């Protein structure tokens, strides 16, 4: 069993005064100023992470790249040839390339670091008497933390109060069975014994909590005594990381493309060296020719593109209030066919208000009047005493709010009772309860609230009684009101010492029902409509009453023709349930294990499933889904850890925005890859043509290095920033088995590259035919190549929009790049020192006119081909399994 770290300070209680002081401290916690000062003095509550790449590591990875080696090799060859200026500038280009890559990689790394901080466990602390959620990294020693089911303990702490608390310490101890934790005697709700106690070790029935352990059940308060490296987790040195920077499926495909290009480039480069050396006798120039050809064929942009798109994609998604915890989710978002969503807080606003009370004889609804009768107050007070004193659940908070208005100070009511034991919600029993001991020698009473069916069973109601109660519930549920049953029972004082494990052992008396209104989010109907237009079926899976679920589903635009309850699902075979899934989109009174079954059966039919959840028991279904979606506001840490993405605002509209962004990111990634393929063809062709026809070399390593300064930012920054296609949410989901680069789209990219190469070849041959001087010929060809390269960027901006619409689409990065390239090109062909460096001749207006006409003509031809291609063969992918 782990021991307390020697440098931590356990809580010691030895006097009544200390006990009283600590009680005050529990209510107020640390002040914000004291916490900030301690955070600065002792450091953040974090562990060493291996994910973040340092500047030196990024630099080392760049030096290992083949393109950098080719640039350095070219510089060395120029030095051997005596061309010191060319060597200097080629090495300068190498440094510039390194700088650009470092800036882009560092930017991506900063984005990922920000996302890691968002993804870290949160903590609910008491600061200045106010409960607030903060990042786990901001927790400091002596913070008072509030613990609830599903939380990941963020620091080593001493437990002060505990209610039915079970903690999984397997991360540290290896023990798979959760251990029960008891509060330290003399504090909070524990025994009032003031005997001096000092905690010396963690474990079962000891008030010591370890950082990294998971709360399986119950709740409590604790005081932090060790954070970061001072905690037991820090001593072990195990770093929990939650952002994955890898994209296995995409990386596998891109690695294949890079490998194939690299092999072709190596073979072609060696062949060029041999041919040039044998035919022209200059082996150093032959090496320059081979290096130029190798540089033209090496797709070193692919790894950069993947890193930038994944990091910036996650950042863009985070701006929609969605945290991407796994990069694989970005790829999978465009393939989702089934979106399984919870109701409360996701489709609805999660702002509960009590709008109805009933005890079977009288009924109160908020719309009728605001004053409660004594009978109504009895129902409300019973519901209140079944809640915790400090509520976090929206329904508990709603009960507290109404009680303050209609009954009086809640603290005064709770002060007349002492909680002997609390019963939490369990998968097999949809009810919670408090066992209360009165301060006036009253008999102990158990107050319970929960699902109407569960409360009915606990009260052993007759069929006739249930019929009347269910009629009331149905009437409210038809209005979209969520209904809970309320019950209580008195027990003997002797039973307090031996309370049963389950509420089923008590003989409850039915008190009444309470109804809650939770309005639908205003943006949900439009978001559901978008999903349907995009070929995504929306399925509601909720623990709510079937009639309430149907009413909310109808308001949201979800198919509410059929509703399946958890009990009905339990009685069905897999075959029967699969048949029912075809025309059922609302599932009510669903238990966690049934969520997992639904996800598994949807996937068995070939669907790509996104699944939302917030509780500990939702984690298996979230993990089993293709995309697990956890709630960031009301979700537990264990649900977040099982998920691919986290909704920071718990809003269904954010899911739809994320799907849209996922499709946009994948579209733009394809555009970038296709542009890279297209642009390398004419560059490689111009490196080979002079060798085949005995012409002077048009492109040397220094020219290709210049072109890389255009290609790198274009394929990464410019295409990543492109807006979504107009039809991005009007086409069916992408087949997840389809490759990143489709064969027909590769043909389109090759078509673009070949057409540009043909135009450049015609220009080159025509210039050679009229015996244009070599320097002027190089000026003409290079100018035309750069301008056609910019044209390819414009052509590939959109799959379906016309060239004019594509040009008019806003993209600040694009116009910054084109302006910069135009300025540098003008400098290269007009400024004498630059002309000398690039071996350009005197620039004439007719050369620019030829390049401009060639570029415009090529763009028009490509536009015509694209229009015909998209009309005849619209590049649509094979749809996923028939839904």
- Report the major sheet: 8 strands, mixed
Percent strand equals: 5-15%
Across the major sheet, the strand order is 10-24-23-22-11-19-21-20
Cα-atom radius of gyration: 34 Å
* Structural class by secondary-structure content: alpha+beta
Q: Regions with pLDDT < 50 over 5+ consecutive residues? A: 1-22, 186-205, 238-248, 873-883
Helical content band: 40-55%
Rounded mean pLDDT score: 79
Q: How many β-strand stretches? A: 24
Number of helices: 31
How far is it from the N-terminal to the C-terminal residue, by CA? Answer: 52 Å
Quick one: overall form?
Answer: elongated
Describe the fold and architecture.
This protein has 883 residues and is an alpha+beta fold. Helices cover 51% and strands 15% of the residues. The chain is built from 31 helices and 24 strands. The protein has an eight-stranded mixed β-sheet with strand order 10-24-23-22-11-19-21-20, sandwiched between helices. The protein is elongated, with a radius of gyration of 34 Å. 47% of the residues are buried.
SSE blueprint:
Blueprint: E1 12-13, H1 16-28, H2 32-42, H3 55-63, H4 66-81, H5 84-119, E2 122-127, E3 130-135, E4 144-147, E5 156-168, H6 170-173, E6 179-180, E7 197-198, E8 208-209, E9 214-226, H7 232-236, H8 248-280, H9 283-297, H10 301-319, E10 322-324, H11 328-333, E11 338-341, E12 353-358, E13 363-365, H12 374-385, H13 394-406, H14 410-415, E14 417-423, E15 431-438, E16 445-450, H15 452-458, H16 463-477, E17 482-490, E18 509-517, H17 524-533, E19 537-541, H18 546-556, E20 563-565, H19 566-570, H20 574-581, E21 586-588, H21 592-604, E22 609-613, H22 619-624, E23 627-631, H23 637-642, E24 645-647, H24 652-693, H25 701-720, H26 743-769, H27 774-795, H28 803-808, H29 812-830, H30 832-838, H31 845-872
């Amino acid at each position: 069993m782990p021991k307390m770290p020697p440098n931590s300070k356990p809580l010691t209680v030895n006097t009544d005064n200390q006990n009283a002081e600590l009680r005050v401290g529990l209510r107020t916690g640390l002040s914000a100023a004291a916490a900030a000062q301690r955070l600065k003095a002792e450091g953040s509550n974090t562990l060493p992470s291996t994910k973040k790449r340092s500047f030196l590591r990024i630099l080392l990875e760049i030096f290992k790249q083949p393109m950098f080696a080719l640039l350095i090799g070219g510089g060395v060859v120029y030095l051997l040839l005596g061309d010191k200026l060319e060597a200097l500038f080629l090495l300068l280009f190498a440094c510039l390339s390194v700088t650009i890559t470092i800036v882009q990689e560092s930017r991506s790394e900063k984005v990922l670091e920000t996302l890691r901080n968002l993804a870290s466990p949160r903590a609910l602390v008491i600061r200045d008497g106010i409960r607030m959620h903060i990042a786990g990294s901001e927790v400091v020693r002596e913070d008072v933390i509030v613990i609830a089911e599903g939380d990941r303990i963020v620091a080593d702490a001493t437990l002060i109060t505990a209610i039915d608390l079970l903690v999984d310490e397997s991360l540290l101890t290896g023990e798979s069975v959760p251990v029960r934790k008891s509060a330290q005697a003399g504090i909070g709700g524990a025994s009032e014994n003031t005997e001096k106690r000092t905690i010396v070790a963690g474990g079962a029935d000891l008030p010591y909590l370890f950082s990294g352990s998971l709360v399986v059940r119950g709740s409590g308060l604790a005081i932090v005594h060790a954070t970061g490296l001072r905690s037991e987790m820090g001593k072990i040195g195990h770093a929990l990381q939650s952002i994955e920077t890898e994209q296995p499926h995409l990386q596998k495909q891109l690695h294949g493309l890079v490998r194939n290009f690299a092999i072709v480039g190596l073979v072609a480069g060696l062949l060029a060296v041999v041919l040039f050396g044998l035919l022209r006798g200059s082996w150093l120039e032959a090496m320059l020719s081979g290096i130029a050809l190798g540089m033209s064929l090496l797709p070193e942009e692919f790894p950069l593109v993947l890193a930038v798109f994944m990091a910036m994609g996650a950042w863009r998604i985070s701006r929609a209030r969605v945290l991407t915890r796994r990069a694989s989710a970005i790829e999978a978002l465009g393939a989702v066919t089934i979106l399984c969503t919870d109701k409360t807080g996701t489709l609805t606003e999660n702002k509960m208000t009590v709008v109805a009370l009933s005890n079977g004889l009288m009924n109160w609804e908020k719309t009728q009047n605001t004053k409660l009768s004594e009978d109504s107050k009895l129902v409300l007070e019973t519901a209140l005493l079944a809640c915790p004193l400090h509520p976090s659940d929206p329904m508990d908070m709603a009960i507290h709010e109404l009680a303050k208005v209609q009954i009086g100070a809640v603290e005064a009511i709770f002060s007349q009772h002492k909680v002997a034991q609390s019963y939490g919600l369990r998968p097999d029993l949809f009810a919670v309860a408090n066992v209360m001991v009165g301060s006036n020698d009253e008999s102990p009473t158990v107050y319970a609230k929960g699902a109407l069916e569960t409360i009915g069973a606990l009260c052993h109601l007759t069929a006739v009684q249930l019929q009347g109660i269910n009629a009331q519930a149905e009437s409210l549920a038809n209005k979209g009101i969520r209904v809970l049953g309320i019950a209580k029972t008195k027990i003997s004082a002797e039973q307090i010492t031996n309370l049963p494990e389950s509420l089923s052992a008590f003989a409850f008396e039915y008190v009444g029902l309470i109804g809650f209104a939770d309005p639908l989010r205003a943006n949900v109907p439009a978001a559901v409509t978008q999903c349907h237009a995009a070929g995504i079926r929306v399925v509601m899976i909720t623990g709510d009453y079937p009639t309430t679920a149907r009413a909310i589903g109808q308001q949201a635009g979800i198919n509410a023709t059929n509703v399946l309850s958890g009990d009905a699902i339990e009685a069905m075979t897999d075959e029967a349930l699969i048949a029912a899934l075809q025309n059922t989109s609302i599932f009510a009174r669903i238990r966690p294990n049934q969520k997992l079954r639904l996800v598994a059966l949807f996937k068995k039919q070939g669907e790509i499933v996104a699944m939302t959840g917030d509780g500990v028991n939702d984690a298996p279904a979230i993990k089993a889904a293709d995309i697990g979606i956890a709630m960031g506001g009301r979700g537990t840490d264990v649900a977040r850890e099982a998920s691919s993405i986290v909704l920071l605002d718990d809003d269904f509209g954010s899911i739809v925005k994320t799907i849209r962004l996922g499709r946009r990111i994948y579209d733009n990634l394809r555009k970038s890859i296709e542009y890279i393929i297209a642009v390398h063809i004419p560059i490689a062709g111009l490196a080979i043509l002079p060798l085949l026809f005995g012409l002077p070399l048009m492109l040397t390593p220094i020219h290709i290095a210049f072109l890389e300064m255009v290609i790198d930012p274009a394929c990464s920054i410019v295409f990543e920033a492109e807006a979504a296609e107009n039809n991005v949410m009007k086409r069916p989901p992408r087949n997840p088995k389809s490759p990143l680069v489709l064969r027909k789209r590769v043909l389109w990219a090759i078509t673009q590259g070949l057409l540009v190469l043909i135009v450049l070849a015609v220009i080159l041959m025509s210039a050679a035919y009229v015996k244009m001087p070599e320097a002027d010929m190089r000026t003409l060809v290079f100018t035309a190549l750069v301008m056609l390269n910019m044209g390819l960027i414009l052509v590939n901006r959109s799959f379906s929009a016309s060239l004019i619409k594509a040009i008019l689409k806003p993209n600040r990065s694009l116009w910054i790049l084109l302006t910069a390239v135009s300025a540098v090109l003008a400098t290269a062909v007009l400024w004498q020192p630059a002309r000398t460096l690039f071996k350009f001749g005197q620039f004439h207006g007719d050369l620019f006119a030829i390049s401009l006409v060639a570029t415009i003509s090529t763009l028009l031809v490509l536009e015509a081909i694209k229009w015909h291609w998209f009309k005849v063969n619209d590049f649509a992918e094979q749809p996923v399994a028939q839904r």
